[in-house]
Amino acid sequence: MLNWGNRFNICCFLDNHQYELPRHRIECLLGAGSLREISANAGAAFASLQTFLSAEKDWVFGHLGYDLKNELETLSSSHPDGVGFPDLFFFIPQIVAQLTPDALIIGVTDDSHETVYNEIAAAPASIPASPAAGASIRSRFSAQEYIDTVERIRQHILKGDCYEMNFCQEFYAEKADIHPLKVYGSLSRSSPNPFSAYYKLGDKYLLCMSPERYLNRSGHTILSQPIKGTSRRDAENEARDALSKDHLRTSEKERSENIMVVDLVRNDLSRVCRKGTVKVDELCGIYSFPQVHQMISTVSGELEDNTSFADIIKATFPMGSMTGAPKKRVMQLIEQYERSKRGLFSGSIGYIHPEGDFDFNVVIRSIAYNAATAYLSFHTGSAITFQSDPAGEYQECLLKAEAIKKVLE
């Protein structure tokens, strides 16, 4: 499906890599080509988006960029953005292909279903691994600069400016010569995750191996699954791996980070859900992925009648796991202490079903690439609380970047 879909100038491929998680109904989903689209930057982006969606009852794919927070909270951003995705982009695809456990379902606007099926079947059945990708990776922070900045953030927490802040750094390469599809294939082999995406807008690409769901709507039920809490996997030693997992489960610091974000998500969902329906379905569950164990909670609620997609996003975006609390103040501090725009990182990619249900991820563990300028970027970060060990937070950033750096270097 992906080898075939990559021929289009615009495509979005979503893959759950056979993780059997709640609310996953489609193994792979592809939107290819564009019949109609909307592209906007923060300002009047949400009004334009809702006008677009109200006029269309069709499959819609696209993204929400982190800097939409400027419109939602009257903020600003002045850092460089080397990749250049718009803050918001959605498109109605020419072709939709759904791979379920039982069938490949093809939707087109004409009678070419069989032609499309035959073309997909004839495409290569695997993606070749990327050779040495030709990307010399640098960071916006040295280790000491990152550690010093975490210490300054801890002082903000001590003074009461905030409770928790997600602080990130950009890793980047200029004159990067990569084959996006092959790099995505390499990431899929080394770090398959349930909310993965290959996203192409002309000469801009996002290669995403996210383990985190931002929002899922099914009928009147809305569900969010924030991640906070990470420990390293040990594939060579089962006992050490189990010990790492148990340490995560019992860590007071990691649990406090997760519970703080759960409270933030409950507050966000309560703005669009019926009174008394917001609940925590699972608190601090431990889930294992190829490189890391993660602590994940699940929060859900029943939507008020006539709640639009834009209403839901405006109430919940950016997701609390990528900001901290209180949300507006930490986003101001993020702008103060980080050194580049996040762009699509900390944003979201996903789809809207013709009946209004939707599923969107959190863009983490992702490579953004501009093929026209040969600029490559990826971010990693961690949640800073007063109990944080600055050197330990830096090591967590490196752990999260490890799979990507291995592929690129």
What is the molecular shape?
globular
- The percentage of residues in β strands lies in 25-35%
CATH topology: Anthranilate synthase
Percent helix: 25-40%
Reported for the largest beta sheet, the result is: 11 strands, antiparallel
Our count of helices gives 11
| pLDDT < 50 stretches | none
- The first-level CATH class is given as Alpha Beta
Give the C-alpha Rg: 20 Å
CATH homologous superfamily grouping: Anthranilate synthase
* Overall pLDDT metric: 94
Number of domains: 1
Task: Provide key terms for this protein.
409 residues; alpha+beta; 11-stranded antiparallel β-sheet; 10-stranded antiparallel β-sheet; 31% strand; globular
Task: Provide an overview of this structure.
By secondary structure, the chain is an alpha+beta fold. It has a single domain, classed as Anthranilate synthase, CATH 3.60.120.10. It contains eleven helices and 21 strands. A hairpin with a 2-residue loop joins strand 12 and strand 13. Helix 6 crosses helix 11. It is globular and about 65 Å long.
